[in-house]
Amino acid sequence: MVVAIDGPAGAGKSTVARASAEALGFTYLDSGAMYRATALAFLERGGPAADRARELDIELGRRVRVEGRDVTEAIRTPEASETASRIATDPEVRHALVDRQRELMSSGDWVAEGRDIGTVVAPDAALKVFLTASPEERARRRAAEIGVDPETVLMDQTLRDEQDRSREHSPLRAADDAVDLDTTGLDVDQVVERIVALARDRSE
Ligand code: DC
Questions:
Q1: Total-model pTM
Q2: In the predicted model, is pLDDT for residue 203 greater than 90?
Q3: CATH 3.20.20.70 assigned to 2-203
Q4: Which residue has its alpha carbon closest to ligand 1 atom 12?
């Protein structure tokens, strides 16, 4: 069974998807980490980004490794974030990474998180959740996480949201059959509880 969790940056997807996967006993897939790892390789080695997306040895888990090197922190810098959002507009990059994500999820139970899981990667997912929160709350959360001021985060976030939503290929949007979940004012446990309940309901 696949649970797809999509939504904008800072909606709490990673925390919620990881915890939901653990509660359900499913494997967690952070698709954004694949775009970030590709972006980092592109920054370090140059293009074309699609070649990096096709060939890169990416190991996902608690730590993210690229060609055996631990890049967990390196893929979260503002530069890597911005570049990830930019290369994610390239249809060839998307095609390569979507293929890899589908291959990973071809067997077993998954909670997969990203922007296009419910719309493109796994349109047959048993449960699709579109996670949102107000822009200010999303910026506050991310600022607390990475230790910079919320105003700067809000500016970067607005730019990235716009880029992710307005791109021609697989823009960020909720699938028609997604459950909208606004996490403003909710804590992680409450959101996870709701997702786990929905997933159990769909698996019956
Ligand atoms: O979820 P994240 O912030 O780690 O994602 C980094 C970037 O990758 C984000 O700006 C958009 C892109 N992305 C995407 O286009 N499709 C996905 N399924 C996941 C991420």
A1: 0.92
A2: no
A3: no
A4: 85
